[in-house]
Amino acid sequence: MTDVLDKVAGKSGELVLRKAGDDFEVIANGVFLMDTRNGESERLLVSVAADLVPGKARMLIGGLGVGYSLRAALDHPGVGEVVVVEREPAVIGWNREGPLKDVHDDALSDERVTVVEADLVKWLRRTEERFDALCLDIDNGPEWTVTDGNAKLYSDAGLDLLTARLRPGGVLAVWSAESVPSFAKRLRARFGEVRELKIPVPQGEPDVLWFARV
């Protein structure tokens, strides 16, 4: 049985928080976006990125989701500070005061965390901040974006924008629900070191993670 816990008009359309059994689901414009059933690949996105960066990393996480990536970042000994950019206030609220708070053990209250309510593309264009690791999980993949505006992040110009926010030796990590050979090719043409991981999931094609070092 699925229960609707909240339904709001978000910045990118209707957002719905549902509970199905013991798990929570987030639906955007009628399309499944994320849930709390597994989260292995979301955790690996940040933990592998942190492994690739020496010292205490300053990390940017694009997309709060259900908080799995943030929790993994805070639990990693190599992460010192985390900035989370999330454009949907409802998602922040569900994680900060709502039912998702217990999913990640109230990670948003950690003093190492700064939450920025903003569209990631616009924020990247105006900020001068730089990071050791930039973990991108705002879409279902480079060719399966939540909004049309996000697609530019995965273009050559978008990769230039992301790279400009990385410190020397920094790592760009990107999550996808599917393999995208054209994007992998674009990464390899742009970065000197690119690693691709495929994470099996209970149903369907494996999730894919890319890690690119400047």
Question: What is the element layout, followed by pairings?
Answer:
Layout: E1 2-10, E2 13-20, E3 23-28, E4 31-35, H1 40-51, E5 57-62, H2 68-75, E6 79-86, H3 89-96, E7 113-117, H4 120-126, E8 131-136, H5 156-163, E9 166-176, H6 181-190, E10 193-199, E11 207-213
Helix pairs in contact: 1-2
Keywords: Polyamine biosynthesis
Protein name: Spermidine synthase
Distinctive features:
Spermidine synthase, Rossmann fold, SAM-dependent_MTases_sf, polyamine biosynthesis, 6 helices, 214 residues
Task: Describe the fold and architecture.
This protein has a single domain, classed as 3-Layer(aba) Sandwich (Rossmann fold), CATH 3.40.50.150. Helix content is 25%, strand content 36%. The protein is built from 6 helices and 11 strands. The strands form 2 sheets. It has a 7-stranded mixed beta sheet with strand order 7-6-5-8-9-11-10, sandwiched between helices. The protein has a 4-stranded antiparallel beta sheet with strand order 1-2-3-4, with helices on one face. A hairpin with a 2-residue loop joins strand 3 and strand 4 (31-35). It is globular, with a radius of gyration of 16 Å.
